[in-house]
Amino acid sequence: MSRRRLGYLLKHANLRLTELTGAALEPYGIDGREFAVLALLDSPAPMSQLDAARRLGIDRTTMVAMVDALERKDLVRRRPHPDDRRKNVVEPTERGHETLGVARIAVDAAEEEFLSSLSGGDAGLLRDVLERLVPPPAG
Amino acid sequence: MSRRRLGYLLKHANLRLTELTGAALEPYGIDGREFAVLALLDSPAPMSQLDAARRLGIDRTTMVAMVDALERKDLVRRRPHPDDRRKNVVEPTERGHETLGVARIAVDAAEEEFLSSLSGGDAGLLRDVLERLVPPPAG
DNA sequence: TATTGTTATACTCTATAACTATA
DNA sequence: TATAGTTATAGAGTATAACAATA
């Protein structure tokens, strides 16, 4: 029996977590990617679209579409940056904050379910190991 | 500092390994997905396209395209199953076996590089933990 | 009737290039 | 000249539906 490749395992682990997270967020009308953007924008320091894109490792044109979608749902708002009018400051609306509060609980539960076959120690170790494997975003 | 989400870590770990594996395989004219199919088909038991698709967790229509590509490169060959003519038995050609031999070494090296920031023990533990998180293919 | 392979088609996610406005 | 946001567009990768051949 040939052991499964690391690439297969990572891909399918990712698929499973995406599925669990997506199902957990469905009642709130957002998916895992939108949750990630919303959670990132819930930050004390004002964040431009480009800042957010770099932090999440996605293209700035992709970020345009994601902010569009969140704005249509009244979860974030764009306003011009006071000091540099090329930039948009993007921030959660009141509704965005509320949604984020409940969505965080749902995503935490989804992660917990995903990790439920592991001991607490192994779950923590998985996270630590992945942290070491994935370099922090540049900039 | 908000800690990075498990979904982010898994996605970007996957991206990094895909990149390393792709670069390692480029000299042999295949990518990581084609390698996975080729390695799976290098099996003592004859395997149909549907068998292979189920094992890799991809759609059977996707498998058609992958086998097409590998056949164009003279790395696999289709022949009718002797006992059930609805099925194709797909098997590596001589050239496929040779390519697989060198490609395996390249992929092993890419995985090693991917894991190079970890101790041997942590690398092994990562693999074990992922094995437990990813259910074996049904069927 | 059900299964295997195939084709046509469409959808999602993403990136590249070019444009606008600001700096 | 360079940067932030936007638009148009195209490329992967994937899946669904319908068909042909076979069971």
Automatic annotation (TrEMBL), chains A, B:
InterPro entries: HTH_MarR-typ, MarR/SlyA-like, WH-like_DNA-bd_sf, WH_DNA-bd_sf. Residues 76-95 are annotated as: Disordered. SMART domains: HTH_MARR. Residues 3-135 form the HTH marR-type domain. Residues 81-95 have a biased composition (Basic and acidic residues). Gene3D superfamilies: Winged helix-like DNA-binding domain superfamily/Winged helix DNA-binding domain. PROSITE patterns: HTH_MARR_2. This is MarR family transcriptional regulator. It comes from Nonomuraea maheshkhaliensis.
